[in-house]
Amino acid sequence: MSHRIALIPGDGVGAAVVEAAMAVADKAAPGLLRTETFGWSCDHYLQTGRMMPEDGIERLRGFDAIFLGAVGWPEKVPDSVSLHGLLLPIRKAFVQYANIRPHRLLPGVEGPLKKTGFDILCIRENTEGEYAGAGGRVHQGTGDEVAVETAIFTRAGVERILRFAFEQAIGRRRKLASVTKSNAQKHSMVFWDEVTRELAAQYPDVEVSHYHVDAIAARMVMAPETLDVVVASNLFGDILTDLGAAIQGGLGFAASANIDPTRQGPSMFEPVHGSAPDIAHLGIANPIAAIWSLCMMLEHLGEREVASRIMAAVEATTANGKGTVPGRDTTHQITAAILAALGNTA
Ligand code: IPM
Ligand code: MN
After folding, report:
1. What pTM was estimated for this model as a whole?
2. How far is the CA of 342 from the centre of ligand 2 (A)?
3. Is 168 helix (H, G, I), strand (E, B) or coil?
4. CATH number of 1-100+254-346
């Protein structure tokens, strides 16, 4: 059975890495993905005044999954407009409340820490919290200006992301690190800690640790091998997953999945790196983050065998030294090496 995928290449390096990922999908399992491409981007905004058409969400709804390259080109459109016009509404509209980001070193990749290994799965709350978008500005442009941005933590939202994280921990090393800042934020974060404790009673096999976000940031550098599943709010998860990307060798390796675990709507898969305007025309974007995200999508669609064949080809490629040093190999060279490795395993 084939799967219908909405492709949104977006801006900057998005198109190149999406193309690479689709070439890999095609080689690994011809015809498995039936794609339709949507040119929604900052250029689309300049032409139409919108990042996506008014019925954009409805047009995406019927797909089995969404594969996105990158959104944003601040010189053309302010990020606050482009992100709130495309990426963030998709995450919210399809209740993709779990943002999953794996951080581990691929074979042959020497991260800046020179550690031999770690394997962290970050679960970031993806629809509310500090990025809920609640707030406003008054007396704009005057000396009396006030800006309010209120974080929203609902019991339903906190409970479902924590439950999802507990379930992920069960399938791994059964360790869950819950991230808050409850020593300083005495309402929302104390609430998060309480819900974590309530759920912990239902998952006696999972060893739960509570970390403050500043402390776990240090731990991710000093002792990443002590962490398994890490669960955090939208803002904290956003920051910690860039840190995770850095310790795994760079943003070129950082994959992500925006999941609706209830499967009522399509989930969305995207590399973490963004549009990278500074290197967009150089042809050196690492396609591995996008290809890894493709593997996460295939797993989500139940195509485990294809996903693991592609991941093995990626690992064989990095083990050979291809794509392991930022900026050295071109997108095309890395993709060609992965395609060749796939040929060897088919
Ligand atoms: C990410 C990105 C986005 C986020 C931005 C572009 C809004 O940084 O996916 O981590 O913070 O969610
Ligand atoms: Mn981010």
Report:
1. 0.97
2. 31
3. helix
4. 3.40.718.10
